[in-house]
Structures are given as structure tokens and as C-alpha cells.
Amino acid sequence: MIKISEEEIIRGLLLRDEKVINLIYENYFPLIKRMVKRNFGNYENAEDVFQEALVIIYEKIKNNDFRLRCSFKTFLYSVCRNQWIKSMFKCGREYQDKFFDVEEYFVISHDVQDYELFDEIKIKEKLFHKYFLELSKNCQRILKLYFYGKTNSEITEIMRFKSEIYTRTRKYTCKETLKKKIFNNPEYKKILYNKTL
């Protein structure tokens, strides 16, 4: 990764400096590609999200409406994250399990134009975290390993289960328990009801 200061990045984006933009791609695109691919997307999706995010950030800088309250890397990741979640919802590709994050993110609701959609996402994430913490420690650990991309074989070894069949059964039971808790919550039912109107 080539070192470049936050000030140089902001100034370079504002001036549309090709060298700076290339450095941003080189330094940060692999992170965004990993995030998108781990959340049901592909390389082309990652490119689209990355370009959309740079346009959003450029517009904010150009309009003097930009206050960096975290690292540029985290801010860029957060914008890309929002754009990809919006894209998934608009295409009907809702994620029922936890969104797999590969970097810390910063809540930037003002960058999402569809506030109704963003509120829905926030509610689902809030419900996920609420009910995830109500699961047994074993279930939490199994699902965390699953979210981090571990195979059934790896989970079996880490958890010291007797067989992969048992692992699959436990993982399924934990996921179904979590889904049931979320789906039975009045806030979630309200989201579903509003979608049918």
C-alpha cells in the first residue's frame, strides 16, 4: 500500500487528480471487493459500488459539505457499504443473516438518499444484534465462525464436535432460532406489512 495523507486524498479528489484516484483504487479497492464478494456480490458489483462512492464523496467535497470524522479508509468503506446494501435491497436480495463486515464502518445516514430504506436496514441490524446476543454462547460462536467464512469442517474442528453432520444440524438450528426471533418481532412484521401495501 502506497502511503498518502488524508489531505492529499481530499485535495486530489477535488482536483480530479488521476494519480491520486489511481492510488485510492490501488490502496482501497481490494477491501471493497472483499466486502462485496463476502456479501453475495461479484467483482463488477464491487467496481460499481466503488465508483459510486467516489462520486458521492467528490460531490460532498465540491459542495463544501465534507467533514471527515474518521479515517478516509473507514469513510470510503462506509459509503460503499451503504451503497451495496441499498443495491441488494432494491434488487430484492435481502440478507437474512448478518452483513459480513471486513472493516469498521461509520454511520453516515446523510449519504443515503432513501431514508425509508435506510431506516429499514437499521431496524433489521438492530434486531439481529438484539436477538443474536440472546442465543446461547455456543450458538453465537458457531454463527460467528460461519459469518467469518469458516467451513463446516473447520467449525467442527474448532468447536470439537464429533462430526460435520452434527455441525450442520447445530448451525441450522441456531440460524432458525435467530430467524424466528427476528421474524416474530413486531418491528419486523411492520416492515413486511408496509411492503405489501
**For the record, what CATH class of the largest domain applies?**
Mainly Alpha
Helix percentage range: 55-70%
User: What can be said about the biggest beta sheet?
Assistant: none
Corresponding CATH architecture of the largest domain: Orthogonal Bundle
Strand-residue proportion: under 5%
Number of distinct beta strands: 0
CATH superfamily (homologous) name of the largest domain? RNA polymerase sigma factor, region 2, helix turn helix motif
Q: Give me the secondary-structure category.
A: mainly alpha
In whole angstroms, how far apart are the ends? 49 Å
What is the gyration radius calculated from CA atoms? 19 Å
Tally of domains: 2
Mean residue pLDDT: 80
Q: What do you see in this structure?
A:
The chain is mostly helical. The chain folds into two domains: 1-113, RNA polymerase sigma factor, region 2, helix turn helix motif (Rna Polymerase Sigma Factor, Chain: A), CATH 1.10.1740; 114-197, Orthogonal Bundle (Arc Repressor Mutant, subunit A). The protein has helices spanning 6-14, 18-38, 43-62, 72-90, 115-132, 137-147, 152-159, 164-183, 186-196. Helix 2 (18-38) packs across helix 4, helix 3 crosses helix 4 (72-90) and helix 6 (137-147) packs across helix 8 (164-183). The longest helix has 21 residues, at 18-38. The N and C termini lie far apart (49 Å).
Give the arrangement of secondary structure elements.
Blueprint: H1 6-14, H2 18-38, H3 43-62, H4 72-90, H5 115-132, H6 137-147, H7 152-159, H8 164-183, H9 186-196
Helix pairs in contact: 1-2, 2-3, 2-4, 3-4, 6-8, 7-8
